[in-house]
Amino acid sequence: MTPETAQPVTTEYFQTAMAALDVQPPVAVAVSGGADSMALLLLCRDWLRRSSDSGWADGLLALTVDHGLRRNSAAEAQRVAGWCADLGIAHRILQWADDKPTSSIQAAARQKRYALLEAACAERGIGDLLLAHQREDQAETLLLNLMRGSGVHGLAAMQPLSKRGKLRFVRPLLDVPKSDLYATLRAAGQDWIEDPSNHDSHYARVRMRTLYRHLRDEGMPPERLTATAAHMQRARAAIDHYTDELLSKAAIVGDAGVAWLDPARLSAAPEEVGLRAIARLITAIGAQRYTPRLSRLESLYQWLCAQPVTGGKTLSGCQLIPHKGRILILREMASIGPDLRLAPGQSGRWDARFDVALGRETASLCAGQAYFSVRAVGEVGLQQIRAMQTARPAANLPVAALRVMPGIWRGDALLAVPDLCYRHPAAAILQRAVTLDFAPRHPVFCKPLNNGNDRA
Of 59, 44, 67, which Cα lies nearest the Cα of 181? Predict the structure, then answer.
C-alpha cells in the first residue's frame, strides 16, 4: 500500500482484532516511541475507552526500555514519557543497567528487553503484553528465517499470540501495513521518533527491508510473504498437535526439571515431529528463550536415532545422558542461573524454570541468616544428603541428575530438596512451608492459544 492510499486503522478494526485474540485489561504496551508502537498505544487507548467505563486508564500501562546503547536513548525515553502523560496513560521506563556485550548486540538487547518487560508485567499482575509488529516486520522475519535455513516453525514467522510462562505476547497488527500506522498517527496529530538504527545496513533486518523492496518490484509484495507465513502457521499447528501426541508417549517430564525420553519411540515418529519434540524438551529443560538452531537439532536427532545410543551430548544448557535404555535430559550445571535469595514469606523464580515460595513460618529456621538461598544441590549438597541418609531412594537417577536439582540452603547447609523428599532433620517445617514448581518459560506440551483457552 502506498502512502497515497494508506488509511488510518479504525477503532472497529482494532476492536475486532483484540476480541479475536481474547485480550482483556489490564494490558501493557511496549512503546519505543517509534511510529508502530505509538500507533498501537493510541489504538489501545481508544479500544479501552470504548470497551471500559471512566476507569479505562487503570487498564493500560506503557513500558519503554532504555537500552542505553545510543547517546539519545534516555532523552527519547523521557520524550515518550511526556507523550504518555499528555495522553493520560501510565508509563514506566525500564533501564538496561548491566554491562553491554561487545558482539551480537541486537540479540542481547532483544533478550534483555523481553526480560525487563516480563518482569514489569509480573510486578503489576498484567497478563497481556501488546507488541507493535506489523505486516512488513512479518515479511522481514520470514525472509530472515528463510536465509537461516529455518524449517516450518521458523517460516511461520511471528505468531499473533504466544506465551512465555504466565505472560501472553499479543501482536494485533501483523496484518496491518506500516503506511496505515503512519496514517493513524497523522490523523491523531501524534508525533513519533525515528530510530536511526532502522536505516543502518550493518543490521541484517535492515538489509532484509532492502531485499523485500526488490521482491515487491518482482511481484512479491509483503502481503504475499505474510500469506506464506500464515500457511506455515497452519502447518505448524498440525505438527504441534502430533508433537504433543509423541511426547505424551515417548517422554516423562519430572517435577525436578528432568526428562526421560524413549529414543525408540522418537525414531519411529516422522522426522519433523521428532525434531519438534527434541526442541520442546531442550528449550524447557535448558531454560531457553528460543529453540536451538535447526542444524544442531538435526545433529542431535541423528545421534538419538542411532542404535544403541552411546556417549552423551550437551546442547543449549542441557545434558543428554543414555541411562537404562532411555535418554535422561537434565540441566547442565555450568549453565544454571545465579542463586535466588528469599526471606521468609517471599517468592521468586530460580534458573528461569522454577517458581519458589517460602512460607512466613520458615522464619524460625533463619538462625541469624536474613534469607535462604535456592541453588543446585551440587557435590556439597550430595555429601550432606549421604551423611543424613534420609532422602527418598533415587536409584533411577544418576548422580549428574541429583547434582542439578534445586535445593533450599541456609548458608552452607542444605535444608531441603523438595523433589527428593529430603529435608534436614532440624528443618521438618519445610515440608509444608516451601512451594517449588517446575514452570519453564516454554512448556513441553503446547495447546492452542485462542478464545481464552490459554488462560487456565
Answer: 44
Q: CB–CB of 285/404 below 8 Å? A: no
Beta bridge partners of 90: 61
**239 vs 362, residue with greater confidence:** 239
Which helix (H) or strand (E) segment holds residue 180: the answer is helix 178-188
pLDDT attached to residue 452: 43
Quote the CA–CA distance of 125 and 119 in Å, as a whole number: 10
Cell numbers representing residue 441 in the block: 518459560
Burial 199-234 (b: 16+ CB within 10 A, else e): eeeeeeeeebbeebeebeeeeebbbebbebbeebbe
Q: Is 344 found in the same domain as 368? A: yes
Which residues, including other chains, have CB under 8 Å from residue 9's CB and lie 6 or more apart? 39, 43, 173, 176, 180, 181, 183, 184
Side-chain half-sphere of 285: how many Cα atoms within 13 Å?
Answer: 32
**Segments forming the whole domain that contains residue 369:** 339-438
Q: Closest Cα partner for 434 from 360, 338, 349, 381? A: 360
Q: What is the CATH number of the domain that holds 321?
A: 1.20.59
Q: Is the pLDDT of residue 445 over 80?
A: yes
Count of C-beta atoms within a 10 Å radius of residue 96 = 18
Tell me: do 365 and 381 sit in the same domain.
yes
**Quick one: cell of 410?**
541456609
Give the span between the Cα atoms of 105 and 390, in whole angstroms: 48
Query: Within this chain, do residues 80 and 197 fall inside the same structural domain, yes or no?
Result: yes
Whether 41 and 189 share a structural domain: yes
Task: Report yes or no on 418 lying in a domain.
Answer: yes
Helix residue spans in 52-104 (DSSP H):
73-87
Rg, C-alpha atoms of the chain = 24
In a domain, 3, yes or no: no
Q: Is residue 238 part of a domain?
A: no
Q: What is the pLDDT of residues 302-311, one digit of tens each?
A: 999 987 888 8
Please measure the distance between the N-terminal and C-terminal CA atoms of the chain and give it in whole angstroms. 40
| Number of domains present in the structure of the chain | 3
**How far does Cα 151 stand from its chain's mean position?**
20
Residue 291 DSSP symbol: P
The closest of 133, 185, 136, 173 to 8, measured between CA atoms, is 185
pTM: 0.81
Closest CA to 94 of 141, 44, 32, 139: 32
